[in-house]
Amino acid sequence: MAESLPLAVVLGRFVAGVQAEHLPEEARQAVSLRMLDTLAAAASGVQQGAERGLLGLLPGDGPIAVWGTAARRGLRDAVIINSAVSHSAYFEDGCRYTGGHPSSALIPAAFALACERGSSGAELVAAIVAGYEVFLRLGRAIYPSTVQRGFQSTAILAAPATAAAASVLLRLPAERAAHAIAIACSHGAGLKEALKNAGSQPLQVGRSSEGGLLSALYAAQGADGVPDVIERGFFKAYAGTASADIVTRGLGLQWGIGNTYLKMHGGCRGNHAPVDAAAGLMREHGLAPRDIASMDVRVDTVTLAAEVAEPANADQAKFSIAFSIAAKLLKGDAMPRRYTDAALADAEMRALMARIRVRADAALDEGYPDRRGAMIGARTVDGRELDYALDRALGEPEQPYAQADIERKFDLTAGALYGPSAGRIKDMAMSLPALPGLTPLNDLLQASHS
C-alpha cells in the first residue's frame, strides 16, 4: 500500500480484503473469546440495571435481542443499548496502548448487523477482526494525547471501528469502505470527564458505535467522505500530531485482537494493577485485612487522574482504587457485583479504605503505557514494613487469562440471567467461526425475563 495514499483509503482497501478463511487461527480464537467476554460484561451491566433507562427511551420492537433481557429492538436501537450496557460495568476488554475498550465499541454493532443480514459466524469473525485493527491502530496513533485533551478513547474510536466492521458485513468494495471510515471519523464523541458518572457515560460509546454503523450504511448508499479526514481532521482534533506509520505498519500481516487485555475485576482498568499487587502482597506474606495498619499505593499520573478518592456512590466506586482493593481483600473478588452502594457504606469496607492511601509516583510514568503497574507499601499492625510491585495488571498479553478463566467469568455473571441456556451460549460463542448463522445465538441471548 502506497504511503502517499490517504489513511482512509489505505484502511478501506485493508477492510475490503479481510476474509475469515485467511486469518490466522489465533485471531479467530481471540474473536470467540472476546465475544464470550463481551457477553459477560453485558450481563454484569444488566445485573446493575444499566439497560432500563435506555429501553424506556428507545421503545419498540425488532429482531435483535437486547442481551440478557426479554426485549428485542431494531438494528440501531439494539446497537446503542447493547454497546452501552456492555461498557457500563467497565468489565470488557481493553488496550493499554489506546486507553480504550474495542469490544464494547464494536462487537454489539457487528453482531446486530450480522444477525439482520443473515451473515455466518465466519463473516462476523472477519468483521470483528477488521474493526479491532482500525480501533487499535488509530488508537495507538492518538493515545495518550487524546485523553490529555479531555476525550474518551473508546467513544472516539468506536465510530471508525464500527464502520470498518460494518463494511465487511456489507461487503463494501474498497472505495466504499474508505468512505465509510472517513464519514465515521466525524461521529465518535466522548469526554474523559464523563467517566466519573458511570450511570450515563456509557451512552456516549453506544451512540458513537451507532454513528459508525450509520456511516457504513450511508457510504453503501453512495455517500462520500473526505479521503484525508484522518490526517487533516481526526489526528489534529484528537492528537495534534500523530504518525501515519503507526496505522499502516504491518497492516494485513499483524493482527492486534489477541493483544488486548481481559478483566477479572470490575471498575476502571487503572484499579487493576493495584488490586493485583495488593492481593499478591497479602498472599505472599499470609496476611488478612485485619493485619494491615496502612497501605501506600503508588500509580502513574494517568491512572491517578481517573481516581475518585472519596466515592459518593457505587458508580464513583468504580474509579476508586481503595474501594477496589478493599473489595478484593474483604470479599474475595472485585467483580462488578461488589460495586454497590451497600458495599460502599459497609463499615468494614470503609475502615479498610481509610487505611489505604493512593498517590502518583513519577517513576511509574516511565515506560507508560507499555508498563502500567503499581507499587504497594504496607505497614502491618505488628510493625513490619512490606513492599510489592507489579509492572502490569493480570490479563495483559504478557500474563493472559486462560479460556477457562473467561468461561468462569461468564458463568459467574451470565449464569443467573440465562439459566439452562448459559451453557449453550458459551459453546456457541466459543465456536463462533463455525456457526452457519447467528439467529440461534441471537434467540438464546434474549433472556426469558427482563
Automatic annotation (TrEMBL):
TM region positions: none
Pfam families on file: MmgE_PrpD_C, MmgE_PrpD_N
Which residues are in the MmgE/PrpD C-terminal domain?
268-423
- In this protein, which residues make up the domain named MmgE/PrpD N-terminal? 11-243
Q: Which SUPFAM superfamilies match?
A: 2-methylcitrate dehydratase PrpD (SSF103378)
Q: Which residues form a coiled coil?
A: none
InterPro entries, A to Z: MmgE/PrpD_sf, MmgE/PrpD_sf_1, MmgE/PrpD_sf_2, MmgE_PrpD, MmgE_PrpD_C, MmgE_PrpD_N
The record's comment on protein family reads: Belongs to the PrpD family.
* PANTHER family linked to this entry: 2-METHYLCITRATE DEHYDRATASE, 2-METHYLCITRATE DEHYDRATASE-RELATED
Q: What is this protein called?
A: MmgE/PrpD family protein
